[in-house]
Write a structure and sequence with these properties.
353 residues, 12 strands, 42% helix, 6-stranded parallel sheet, 16 helices, 16% strand, alpha/beta, globular, Rossmann fold
């Protein structure tokens, strides 16, 4: 049996959909499970035994019809028995069509059911604390009637060498091993997913005043100026606890460093999903225009806590659709003050730090 699972999207989605591969491997241990993802997300899957082969959808496949056609032909040659399309966009539709697989599963979409042999309706509400995003991904396995207990927690695997790298980096950077280490997700992937910089600095001051901790910033080189601005906005006593340059040089470096931290606090995004897959407690600040119910996975009020402006001021969201909220995100963020977040944040840091 040969199976292809498709998930061309970002880190969080790729980690969640890896659960499809893991459960298929559990149910069909002798099957060949292949996983198609964007090349940029490959590092979070390194060492994962849930699949046999990674099929990388690269930038050239978007830029060149010739390269895309080569990829589609290579998929066709594999003669898959089953394709599970958890992306369900034009790119994956082409892969599904060319695959020639006799069984094809995806989500129900009007006027798209002809592409698949089985479709699943997405849930609008989560039935458990694993979260709606995970429940919907696992629902794609329903047509197979698997006789197993489903795995529900995405995993990232860190090698012995990577653990040693992080330990040596912490030692070289003079982090105090007697203190807990906090990774701070100071920036979102875009401005409308980023808690205002001055507000973030205020929350970092709050953490530093409450606890004796090591503080690390998660940012990429292109975000250096914004990260430095947050650093400069922090109090002098806070800056003394921040190890600004402990960032690593790659996504695997970040994974290694995050694995050596105790908790993550900050904006929703890939870093949060990586931390959760490493089994690290998380405190998440959601953007006003993002639907918290989708990505607030494993919420238990203790190990994983998230906060959204809608939790505090629901009246601001009445009769507003996603496009409107996205357009008004900067104004809404201004109403999401650090003082409104501090009570829940204090609960989190008192328990974990």
């Amino acid at each position: 049996m040969k199976v292809l699972v498709i998930q061309q999207k970002m880190i969080g989605d790729v980690l969640v959909s890896s659960l499809i591969c893991e459960n298929l491997k559990k149910a069909y241990p002798k099957a060949q499970i292949d996983y198609m993802v964007y090349e940029s997300t490959q590092p979070v899957l390194q060492g994962n035994p849930a699949f046999d082969n990674l099929i990388l959808f690269k930038p050239k496949h978007r830029k060149s019809k010739k390269e895309l056609f080569k990829l589609l032909i290579s998929v066709r040659k594999e003669k898959y028995d089953l394709v599970i399309d958890s992306y369900s966009k034009l790119e994956s539709w082409l892969v599904v069509i060319f695959s020639g697989a006799p069984k094809k599963i995806s989500y129900y979409k009007k006027n798209r059911t002809f592409l698949y042999t089985d479709t699943v309706i997405r849930k609008t509400k989560a039935l458990s604390n694993i979260g709606r995003i995970i429940e919907n991904r696992l629902a794609l396995l329903n047509p197979l009637n698997l006789k197993i207990e489903l795995e529900t927690f995405p995993k990232i695997y860190v090698s012995k060498e990577e653990k040693q790298y992080a330990e040596k980096l912490f030692q070289k950077s003079m982090l105090n091993n007697a203190k807990k280490t906090v990774m701070l997700g100071i920036l979102g992937s875009t401005a409308d997913k980023t808690y205002p910089l001055e507000y973030m600095a205020s929350l970092i001051d709050f953490i530093a005043e409450k606890k004796e901790v090591n503080l690390l910033f998660n940012y990429i080189p292109s975000q250096f100026s914004e990260a430095k601005k947050i650093y400069d906005l922090c109090k002098k006593t806070t800056r003394e606890k921040i190890f600004f340059n402990v960032t690593g040089n790659s996504l695997r470096d970040f994974i290694s460093i995050m694995n050596n931290c105790d908790v993550i606090i900050g904006n929703d995004g890939g870093a949060i999903n990586i931390a959760k897959a490493l089994n690290k407690p998380s405190f998440i600040i959601f953007s006003p225009w993002i639907d918290k119910l989708g990505w607030a996975t494993f919420e238990d009020g203790k190990n994983h806590i998230s906060i959204h402006l809608k939790d505090l001021q629901p009246q601001l969201f009445h009769n507003k659709d996603g496009k409107t909220l996205k357009r008004e995100s900067s104004q809404l963020y201004k109403k999401f003050s650090p003082e409104s977040i501090e009570p829940q944040l204090e609960h989190f840091i008192e328990f974990h730090l």
